[in-house]
Specification:
Helix content: over 70%
InterPro entries: Complex_I_Subunit_2, NADH_DH_su2_C, NADH_UbQ_OxRdtase_chain2, ND/Mrp_TM
Largest sheet: none
Transmembrane segments: 15-35, 47-64, 84-103, 140-159, 166-184, 190-209, 221-242, 262-282, 311-332
Order of helices and strands: HHHHHHHHHHHHHHHHH
Number of strands: 0
Domain NADH dehydrogenase subunit 2 C-terminal: 278-332
Domain NADH:quinone oxidoreductase/Mrp antiporter transmembrane: 11-276
Number of helices: 17
Strand content: under 5%
Oligomer: single chain
Shape: globular
Protein name: NADH-ubiquinone oxidoreductase chain 2
Structural class: mainly alpha
Length: 333
């Protein structure tokens, strides 16, 4: 999995980039289907079909470009039909709207740990290809994809009760924000990607530790660890992008960048779509910290036992995902 991503990120030739993506896809198939139940097999099949189709389109686009320009360089993607095809294929690989249908289904069919890999590590290779070809991609197409994704990610997440599906729509919305700013300020796209990866990792670790697969399960988090409950609340609010927390930084910088380019209507729609996402994050926050599920006397004692989970990574990622906002001026200097 790691090798595939690294090959794509370091390649100059389209064929090598394609080989990396293909390795990446084939490596995660057994990881998704480890559960040996029909649901995970279905998820693995869906993942394979969408990724293989997207990879084939990427190969086709690069061949078209090579046929027209005589070069296989990743950065020399100058033929217009080729770069539009590539944008669509990468959007399909990332799960951007309107090619997002596979993502919630695949996450729902896999374990929480696998869902974490799909929503974080699997985004790196396609994002690096977007970053490398940015100079030649169509800004209008990217902004349209980003707008659609942020709206769909917020809207479709509203009626979900499964935490994995909520995280899938959250991922779609966050990627929408990244793609919108990508052609205007690529460095902010990278910053947003890094913060998104850290916040998602921290939240998935909390969900894995508390075994929360549905919203209902999150009501029992306090029995495991009162500290975890508080952290989860702040993490969710950070993911939603509320001001005193880290999650607000990328949204603030993106809106600022869009307004600076006279794209005020786009910025307004993006900000409104963030409210949709905020609703389902708030609902998760509410069930996690402010409601009690019917419980027995034994559940109250659970938090006294030590959890057997690597807390260091979770502690570090949680801290970064909460306290990074004051550092913003340093990054802008």
């Amino acid at each position: 999995l790691a090798t595939g991503t690294i090959i794509t990120m370091t390649s100059h030739h389209w064929l090598m980039a394609w080989i990396g993506l293909e390795m990446n896809t084939l490596a995660i198939i057994p990881i998704i289907s480890t559960m040996h139940n029909p649901r995970s097999t279905e998820a693995a099949t869906k993942y394979f079909l969408t990724q293989a189709a997207a990879s084939a389109v990427i190969l086709f686009a690069s061949m078209l470009n090579a046929w027209q320009t005589g070069t296989w360089d990743v950065i020399n993607l100058t033929y217009e039909p080729a770069h539009i095809l590539l944008t669509m294929a990468l959007a399909m690989k990332l799960g951007l709207a309107p090619m997002h249908f596979w993502l919630p289904e695949v996450l729902q069919g896999s374990t929480l740990t696998t869902a974490l890999i799909i929503t974080t590590w699997q985004k790196l290779a396609p994002m690096s290809l977007i970053y490398m070809t940015l100079n030649n991609l169509s800004t209008t197409t990217l902004i349209t994809l980003g707008l659609l994704s942020s709206i769909v990610g917020g809207w479709a997440g509203l009626n979900q009760t499964q935490t994995r599906k909520i995280m899938a729509f959250s991922s779609i919305a966050h990627l929408g924000w990244m793609i919108t700013i990508s052609s205007i300020m690529p460095n902010i796209m990278i910053l947003n990607l890094m913060i998104y990866l850290i916040m998602t990792t921290a939240l998935f670790h909390s969900l894995i530790l508390s075994k929360s697969k549905t919203i209902q399960d999150t009501t029992a988090t306090w029995t495991l660890s009162p500290t975890l409950t508080t952290m989860m609340m702040i993490l969710l609010l950070s993911l939603a992008g509320l001001p005193p927390l880290t999650g607000f930084m990328p949204k603030w910088l993106i809106l600022e960048g869009l307004v600076a380019q006279n794209l005020t209507p786009t910025a307004t729609i993006m900000a409104m779509s963030a409210l949709l996402s905020l609703f389902f994050y708030l609902r998760l926050t509410y069930t996690t910290t402010l409601t009690l599920s019917p419980n027995t006397t034994q559940t109250k004692l659970k938090w006294r036992f030590k959890p057997n989970h690597p807390m260091l990574l979770m502690g570090a990622s949680s801290t970064i995902s909460i306290f990074l906002l004051p550092m913003t001026p340093l990054m802008l200097l």
